[in-house]
Amino acid sequence: MTTAATPEKIFNIGFGFWSSKVLLSAVELGVFTELAKGPLDLASLAHRIGLHDRAARDFLDALVALKLLDRGDGLYSNSAETDLFLDRAKPSYIGGLLEMANTRLYSAWGALTEALKTGKPQNESKDSGDLFAALYADPNRLRSFLAAMSGVSAGAAQAIAAKFPWKERKSFVDVGAAQGMVTVTLARSYPHLAGTGFDLPQVQPVFEEFAGKSGVLDRVVFRGGNFFADPLPTADVIIMGHILHDWDLTQKRMLLAKAYDALPKGGALIVYEAIIDDERRQNAFGLLMSLNMLIETSGGFDFTGADCQAWMREAGFAETRVEPLVGPDSMVIGVK
């Protein structure tokens, strides 16, 4: 007998924004940071984070039902995951990405239908078409964006440190280093590596602050530049994380060619993204990320491992392979 079809999955997806906004608002309000200090009852927690009496119980119990909070003996506490990843006081905090989702992406995605019809971005670059000019012009918005990039890169950085044969290499350049999550992670994991973070000059103070707090500023350097206008710094390994998907195909090919030119013979390029599976059936996050590039950029899109390997071979790379990292992320490696 076949199982009767139900609309449950349709409703769960269609109303998924309810759960999403509850989490995003909880991060914004500092719920998890407050509870990391210790369990609290309803009245105390509501008072500390500024909830109205009418909203408090349903909001906090919704977080319990979503398995984001625990509740016992009338006291609310963090789950293991939210305590580790959503407490702003911990170095493992990834909430910067969710803060960006809340302040920028949530409203922009409300215009997805317009983006699907027009092919144009729907964020703060809607009129100018230049997302990064808009972001980098505002120091506070820039800091928020760079912190978000650390959140999206943290897991992949650990996996790249573990899975790539770094003991055989002496130097690396992280292109589009942002706050420096990958640079710092590799430097802390392999003291013999000479690391360079390459990004626009406005990023330097944020990068150096992050590297300093992580204790590796004496072993990594920042180099300011524009990867379209300037040559890439040379190193044994060049890393491009969540970079290629921002750009159109011509620009992607240009960046891969620049990486090839900057590498010595035997050098390696690591491209990591939410790489879409070759059949385009499994990695829903990668496909949704590509739609996010539609929302965010004038020509960006995500791609499959086969796509990236083909572009690498066009650039001259002799060997290519794809390796999974963590969650939806994979890395495509090209060796010169």
Automatic annotation (TrEMBL):
<feature type="domain" description="O-methyltransferase dimerisation">
    <location>
        <begin position="15"/>
        <end position="86"/>
    </location>
</feature>
<dbReference type="Pfam" id="PF00891">
    <property type="entry name" value="Methyltransf_2"/>
</dbReference>
<dbReference type="GO" id="GO:0008168">
    <property type="term" value="F:methyltransferase activity"/>
</dbReference>
<keyword id="KW-0808">Transferase</keyword>
<feature type="domain" description="O-methyltransferase C-terminal">
    <location>
        <begin position="109"/>
        <end position="317"/>
    </location>
</feature>
<protein>
    <submittedName>
        <fullName>Methyltransferase</fullName>
    </submittedName>
</protein>
<keyword id="KW-0489">Methyltransferase</keyword>
<dbReference type="InterPro" id="IPR016461">
    <property type="entry name" value="COMT-like"/>
</dbReference>
<dbReference type="InterPro" id="IPR012967">
    <property type="entry name" value="COMT_dimerisation"/>
</dbReference>
<dbReference type="InterPro" id="IPR029063">
    <property type="entry name" value="SAM-dependent_MTases_sf"/>
</dbReference>
<dbReference type="InterPro" id="IPR036390">
    <property type="entry name" value="WH_DNA-bd_sf"/>
</dbReference>
<keyword id="KW-0949">S-adenosyl-L-methionine</keyword>
<dbReference type="InterPro" id="IPR036388">
    <property type="entry name" value="WH-like_DNA-bd_sf"/>
</dbReference>
<dbReference type="Pfam" id="PF08100">
    <property type="entry name" value="Dimerisation"/>
</dbReference>
<dbReference type="InterPro" id="IPR001077">
    <property type="entry name" value="COMT_C"/>
</dbReference>
<dbReference type="GO" id="GO:0032259">
    <property type="term" value="P:methylation"/>
</dbReference>
